[in-house]
């Protein structure tokens, strides 16, 4: 616009187009069981018709996906794709999931003891499973585990008490593992028990609280190189090509480009560090080498004391190397003398 007037950015229009694109993408993804929309992201268990879910251990796996957003650029709109990753529960037999969570061998299932029972019950509670002993599969949310195996748990049937193993064995065939625990899909007051071997963990369930090793494995799997991330973005962009057949996008004449936008740039040279005696060091592989170098204009600090209530040998092995390292780097510190104070035991007398 001329005449010194400023052009207003139609944020409401950009937001409307962003909502249309996200809604059309999610609606096309809902029909595909291999993907799961979650908040502002869409995750896929398969990318480019290949399995793409590395295992995290403990019955969990990682799904990769993306978040899309519209950004206003010079004379055009840019569709921004950001990679995302999340932990999901692995689709597998419920027997394997429960016994792996308890640290037991699923090949010889039996009842749990103490800590195993608590770990397995905590892992399976809230997980949705589907039964495979009926013609039409039904899904249930697990409320907990039984304390005994199917051969030891009983239920009322036609006014008489029978074991869960005998009930399911009579109606659907003999159980392979009658000593394994049962899943409670009812409530604590009115339990509904299903043998764990007759259930399968449903696919596409978010792992709510990954533990420490699972989180570390997620970070390791997500830290791919630029070439790997570019290939993954290209695979996800191919899935957006289905928007060309979406009636809403067609009516608004929204059509994502087939190739990514190329932006010119340059690599900024990493700065160097100057050390004592005019020595200069440049980073190598993202780090500066400090071996044999002292800081330029290093500071000095006064006397200090360390109070330790323990063994004098442990104090010396931990403090003296630190004091030596500071002097090697040029930091002026006084020579420290170590002393260990041992408190006297208190004695109590009755009056």
From TrEMBL:
Molecular functions per Gene Ontology: RNA binding
Gene3D superfamilies with a match to the protein in the record: paz domain
Residue ranges occupied by any PAZ domain in the UniProt entry: 93-203
Domain of life: Eukaryota
Cited InterPro entries: ArgoL1, PAZ_dom, PAZ_dom_sf
UniProt-annotated stretches for the region Disordered: 204-227
Record-linked PANTHER family: EUKARYOTIC TRANSLATION INITIATION FACTOR 2C
Protein name: PAZ domain-containing protein
Species the sequence originates in: Apatococcus lobatus
Lineage, opening ranks: Eukaryota, Viridiplantae, Chlorophyta, core chlorophytes, Trebouxiophyceae
């Amino acid at each position: 616009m001329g005449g010194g007037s400023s052009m207003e950015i139609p944020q409401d229009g950009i937001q409307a187009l962003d909502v249309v694109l996200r809604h059309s993408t999610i609606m096309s993804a809902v029909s595909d069981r291999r993907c799961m929309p979650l908040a502002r992201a869409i995750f896929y268990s398969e990318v480019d018709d290949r399995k793409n879910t590395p295992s995290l251990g403990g019955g969990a796996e990682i799904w990769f996906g993306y978040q899309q957003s519209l950004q206003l650029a010079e004379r055009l709109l840019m569709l921004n794709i950001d990679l995302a990753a999340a932990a999901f529960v692995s689709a597998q037999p419920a027997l394997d999931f429960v016994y792996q969570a308890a640290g037991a061998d699923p090949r010889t299932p039996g009842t749990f003891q103490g800590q195993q029972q608590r770990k397995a019950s905590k892992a399976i509670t809230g997980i949705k499973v589907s039964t495979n002993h009926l013609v039409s599969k039904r899904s249930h949310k697990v409320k907990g585990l039984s304390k005994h195996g199917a051969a030891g748990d009983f239920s009322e049937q036609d006014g008489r008490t029978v074991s869960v193993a005998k009930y399911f064995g009579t109606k659907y065939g003999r159980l392979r593992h009658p000593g394994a625990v049962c899943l409670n899909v009812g409530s604590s007051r009115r339990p509904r028990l299903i043998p764990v071997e007759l259930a399968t963990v449903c696919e596409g369930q978010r792992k709510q609280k990954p533990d420490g090793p699972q989180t570390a494995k997620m970070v390791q799997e997500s830290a791919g190189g630029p070439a790997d991330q570019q290939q993954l973005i290209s695979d996800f962009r191919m899935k957006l090509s289905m928007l060309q057949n979406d009636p809403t996008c067609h009516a608004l004449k929204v059509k994502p480009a087939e190739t990514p936008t190329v932006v010119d740039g340059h690599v900024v040279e990493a700065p160097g560090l100057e050390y004592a005696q005019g020595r200069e060091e440049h980073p190598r592989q993202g780090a500066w080498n400090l071996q044999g170098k002292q800081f330029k204009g290093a500071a000095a600090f006064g006397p200090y004391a360390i109070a330790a209530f323990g063994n004098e040998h442990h104090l010396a092995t931990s403090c003296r190397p630190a004091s030596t390292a500071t002097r090697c780097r040029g930091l002026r510190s006084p020579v420290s003398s170590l002393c260990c104070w041992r408190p006297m035991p208190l004695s109590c007398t009755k009056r």
